[in-house]
Automatic annotation (TrEMBL):
InterPro entries: SusD_RagB_dom (IPR012944), TPR-like_helical_dom_sf (IPR011990)
Residues in RagB/SusD domain copies: 342-507
Keyword Signal: yes
Keywords: Cell outer membrane, Membrane, Signal
Name of this protein: RagB/SusD family nutrient uptake outer membrane protein
Subcellular location: Cell outer membrane
Family, per entry: Belongs to the SusD family.
């Protein structure tokens, strides 16, 4: 029997025609989205970076095991073999697909130059973003720009790639994309010049090239193509297709190619509906289980300015309101804030109920159109946005001694949230503002690692003291070591690398 191809799409079509290569680029975005869609271990994987940051408190459930350092901190634990391994495999898969598209486009004859450069720019931007993520997570990574083929499929990298070589490729890929991408795109969710410049600025910050970072952020802000939306309420509303957005991962319910649902919101909003007098509602953050939440450190930062509205059901939800007459406790009224539980410093029976049902949560991933009882959402995920561009620019200009410009950028973000302007600036001020503005968007861990503050801030702030003392495996602050700023290369991957490939220090 002879196999017959019934589809117009084949490997030959994908890599030998302009239309095929454009389809392959679309496939990169689909592949990139898969990390958010992965609901393994109750949706823990896409929240590992948030769980391991200094802004989160791990309450219960699988994702909390990463906060508690029971998972993802050694070669022998299940969290490394599962979630940490997922990140290595996910981003190297994107790199390999990007390599195939880049090589095919560069070798394709008879294609319009602009069309070719668009394909190359998106693929190079995706490759740079993936390698950049891998480097920041794992440090000891290898760079390969040749796609996997029958001749090299069993080749084993023998050593890590030097940092200088990694960053040379990142800058080359991103500079090409900046030169060839427009600021606007007819298809929302694709890389643009603004995206490429934003990532390029982040790369420059890792090299302490403050002038380059400042130039890139200034270019985005002054281009006229992006601006902060007027209110914090608008930032995460709807499909995120607005002037502040630089890059999203897109979903659409009941649509071919719309992706599978994600359960990020469910993990990070409290289970308020389990309290008397409260039922599921969008106003109370939708369905939540409260496995991971905001810790006291970031809550206190947000409460410093009473007018800061980021906590007023825009980014975060600080109060869950009584909304069920049938089960309303005596003395309570509809619309009053839920206040049945106390975050007691030592009584575990009390503080666990508080964390699960009443602790402030994050609603940046809430699908307002989902049924309030539905944990599965199709909300677009904000990956990069202009508020972070402003804060990168503020830090870069400050490091250049340009405090006036740095404060201008910082206060653009603060004033949009109705917070008072700052009149002095230093690194702590910027890190505090990044915490308020960008918490749970997946950037915090990288920022603290880049600035050399990760270990210090985790020791000072990770989780909350009462929960840290209650974990049966011990206080994670006693487990934490400085070498853990690099994730362990999972044993499964070490077995596929050369015999002398270096594991990150501390994990041997």
């Amino acid at each position: 029997m002879k196999d017959e191809l019934l589809s117009d799409t084949s490997v030959d079509f994908l890599y030998t025609t302009p239309e095929g290569l454009e389809s392959a680029v679309v496939g990169l975005y689909t592949l990139n989205r898969q990390l958010y869609e992965d609901r393994s271990l109750n949706g823990a994987y896409p929240l590992i970076l948030q769980a391991k940051s200094d802004l989160a408190v791990g309450v219960t459930g699988e994702v909390s095991l990463y906060s508690r350092l029971l998972w993802g901190f050694s070669l022998g634990d299940f969290g490394t073999a599962s979630g940490i391994n997922k990140y290595w495999v996910h981003y190297y898969k994107i790199v390999d697909r990007s390599n195939a598209i880049i090589q095919a486009a560069e070798n394709l004859d008879g294609i319009d130059e602009d069309r070719k450069n668009q394909i190359l720019s998106e693929a190079k931007c995706m490759r740079a973003n993936s390698f950049f993520t891998l480097y920041r997570l794992f440090n000891n990574i290898f760079v390969n720009t040749t796609p996997t083929n029958p001749d090299n499929a069993f080749d084993k990298p023998q050593d890590k790639t030097p940092k200088e070589e990694i960053f040379t490729l990142l800058k080359s890929d991103l500079d090409f994309a900046i030169a060839n991408l427009d600021y606007t795109t007819p298809e929302f969710g694709r890389f643009t010049q603004g995206t490429a410049r934003h990532i390029r600025a982040k790369v420059a910050m890792w090299e302490e090239d403050w002038a380059e970072a400042a130039a890139q952020t200034d270019a985005i802000i002054e281009s006229g193509n992006h601006s902060l939306v007027p209110t914090t309420k608008e930032v995460f509303a709807g499909d995120l297709n607005h002037s502040e957005t630089l890059f999203t991962s897109n979903f659409e319910r009941e649509t071919i190619g719309g992706g599978g649902e994600h359960i990020l919101n469910w993990n990070i909003v409290s289970e308020s509906h389990a309290a008397d007098g409260v039922v599921h509602s969008v106003e109370n953050g939708g369905a939540g289980v409260g496995f991971l939440s905001l810790n006291d450190y970031v809550i206190n930062l947000l409460n410093e300015d009473p007018n800061d509205d980021r906590k007023d059901n825009t980014y975060y939800i600080f109060e869950y309101l009584y909304n069920d007459e049938l089960s309303l406790p005596a003395g309570k009224n509809i619309g009053d804030p839920l206040d049945l539980y106390v975050n007691h410093p030592t009584d575990q029976n009390q503080f666990m109920l508080y964390y699960r049902r009443q602790n402030p949560g994050v609603i940046k991933f809430l699908d307002e159109n989902a049924e309030p009882t539905d944990r599965a959402h199709y909300k677009n995920i904000m990956v990069y946005r202009l508020a972070e561009t402003y804060l990168i620019g503020a830090e870069a200009h400050m490091m250049l001694g340009e405090d006036v410009k740095a404060l201008e950028y910082l206060n653009e973000v603060r004033n949009r949230a109705n917070a008072e302007s700052k009149i002095t600036i230093d690194l702590q001020t910027i890190l505090d503002e990044r915490a308020r503005e960008l918490a749970f968007e997946g950037q915090r861990w990288f920022t603290l690692k880049r600035t050399g503050k990760l270990f210090e801030f985790l020791i000072d702030h990770m989780n909350n003291d009462n929960l840290n003392e209650s974990y049966p495996e011990g206080n994670p602050k006693d487990i934490l070591r400085e070498y853990m700023q690099n994730w362990p290369i999972p044993q499964e991957q070490i077995g596929l690398l050369g015999p002398n490939y270096p594991q990150n220090d501390g994990y041997n």
